[in-house]
Design a protein that fits this description.
Keywords: Oxidoreductase
Strand content: 15-25%
Number of strands: 12
Shape: globular
Helix content: 25-40%
Distance between the termini: 27 Å
CATH topology: Rossmann fold
Structural class: alpha/beta
CATH class: Alpha Beta
Pfam family, one: F420_oxidored
CATH architecture: 3-Layer(aba) Sandwich
Number of domains: 1
Domain Pyrroline-5-carboxylate reductase catalytic N-terminal: 4-91
Largest sheet: 10 strands, mixed
Number of helices: 7
Protein name: NADPH-dependent F420 reductase
Radius of gyration: 16 Å
InterPro entries: NAD(P)-bd_dom_sf, P5C_Rdtase_cat_N, STEAP_metalloreductase
Order of helices and strands: EHEHEHEHEHEHEEHEEEE
CATH superfamily: NAD(P)-binding Rossmann-like Domain
Amino acid sequence: MSYSIIGFGHVGQALARAFARKNMEVAVASRRGPEALAPQAKAIGPTVVPRTLHEAVEADTIILAVPFWGHRAVAKTLASWEGKTVIDATNAFGVPVADLDGLPSSAVVAKAFADARFVKGFNHLPAETLAADPKVEGGRRVVFLSSDDDSAVGPVASLAERLGFAPIALGKLNEGGALVQARGRAWTRLIFQDLVKPA
């Protein structure tokens, strides 16, 4: 199984640290070329490998850590996303609710990756918390997952566990997924909730 993170800002780098902590290889890419990402990637760890966007989307599992509308450019890099798992770690804070056609933000992103196995996850924690060791207080830090594809959640939950987190499935995008999104300039109930599942 191969992994990539698209977007190498605060959230992308936080996720890269989670992979590096477990000595798991992950490709990283952004609008900038691999050479621009190399110093930060090297500082995080040797398993974090800068790639072009077109190389990174060849991975089996792709984590989106781009600014919200940046997902559209990523979606256009492949004619079909069939066979891929896409994990949406974006947030739509500041995006007018009217621009989302009444849908949860993750459902808008899912439409752009219609052929993919799509899961919302890793988006509710601040980057500095996401970057920290999830083994805390005698337990593991919780990450929430939601998807309209029940079969997609299990593999992403397994990845979260490999990275040291405690995954909790919230159900469909318009149900549990709606609890971990921004609406306009407000955050919904589970955003920033730093919860720990006891060991």
